[in-house]
Amino acid sequence: MTSRRDFFKFAGIAGGAVAAASVSKVAMAALPEPVIQTSAETSAPLVPNFGRPYNPVVTLNGWTLPWRMNQGVKEFHLVAEPVVREMAPGFSAHLWGYNGQSPGPTIEVVEGDRVRIYVTNKLPEHTSIHWHGQRLPNGMDGVAGLNQSAISPGKTFMYEFVARRPGTFMYHPHADEMTQMAMGMMGFWVTHPKAKNPLIDEVQRDFCFLLNAFDIDPGSYTPKIMTMLDFNLWSWNSRIFPGIDSLNVRLNDKVRIRVGNLTMTNHPIHLHGHEFLVTGTDGGPTPKSTRLYEVTTDVAVGQMRQIEFLADEEGDWAFHCHKSHHTMNAMGHDVPTLIGVDHRGMTQKIRNLIPDYMVMGERGMADMAEMEMPLPDNTAPMMTGQGPFGSVEMGGMFSVLKVRKDQKPGDYKDPGWFKHPEGTVAHEYTGPLQAPARFKSEGGQSMPLAETPKKQTVVKARKPTRHTEH
Ligand SMILES: [Cu+2]
């Protein structure tokens, strides 16, 4: 375990010397002991050993916060603090989060539970927590200035309410929100139903993660908090591919995946090989009559979506955001499109002058995944990930659903790559090739032109060098 003092070293991001706000030992003694996580691995589900039983969730590259029972109240202790988050192997970011990680731990309770959450502020500035989507007394809603005083550095506040409705929720600060969310402060919350609910099916696997985004210059460690749209790291639970763990399930498991969006844009989340139903939103379980089979569902800003499907196709199925820029890591911006331009030899000459100079390949971007580009320290390659057949050429919001016959019930370990049955992999055709036959049908224009243009115009698609919208 990393020493807690190590975290304070990085606390000078915005506030300098006030960073290591001290919390007195006496004051902490009455609180539930804060549990700190230093690893970015996916933790095993936290099976409750008291209270009402439920089927716990698995947080991708995250964990569930243990609690204590105090006279019928479930007590949790969140510590808002600077953290170092490994976003992918070899790439760490200096973020703010809770209990050692960004996002913070997932909180799991049961419908009807009385919940008390102590929030200790070890940030260099004030904070608060808003319990996104919950029914609660107005004074517990966490909007600093509106519903409560902000929690000053070094102070601990108490929130208490009954988890009134089952569903998928999030928590995040509602004080200097722009800074604190851009720095990674957020977490997941799941309220399990207290009894059989006609709209909530039992599942064998229940995964959850938050969509978040950061703007961290290659070679640096701290996000730029003023960025509104032009983020360069699109992450799931502050992890980027190939740092996002796969979702490992057993063949014919019923699977639920809960996704919350705390970025500044929408993310069409797409699953290969299966159709799913959206069984829940911010407002709770969806009425059955509204459920459609889909393979992509858009998760807008501030929304939560809960999808369910039967994992009845074995294999390694891609699961990702369908915005292609969101499956890229840093440095995807400001690279001119050079498809069709022969610049062989030129790159090396320029690199003699500008060592980090990099251009897009003349045949597309795939070249870049293979080119051994010199990377500055502490960044992730733009597109990477070695699969069984070569580079996956992905980054950002991308993972793999692994469906296996021999995955044990309750086992979340990575089973390795899928072994395809003989003759079921696309492969090169080596037989004779016919000359192409052109399609010769008449027509092609809905209306004849008044005048035939003298010169044919041919347009080449070119990505703008500076884009502001994803
Ligand atoms: Cu996206």
From TrEMBL:
Leader sequence segment: 1-29
Keywords: Metal-binding, Oxidoreductase, Signal
Key word S-adenosyl-L-methionine present: no
Locations listed in the record: Periplasm
Pfam family, one: Cu-oxidase_3
Domain Plastocyanin-like as annotated: residue spans: 91-195, 221-335
InterPro entries the UniProt entry points to: Cu-oxidase-like_N, Cu-oxidase_C, Cu-oxidase_fam, Cu_oxidase_Cu_BS, Cupredoxin, TAT_signal, TAT_signal_bac_arc
Composition bias type Basic residues, residue spans: 460-470
Ranges for region Disordered: 436-470
NCBIfam families reported for this sequence: TAT_signal_seq
Designated name of the protein: Multicopper oxidase family protein
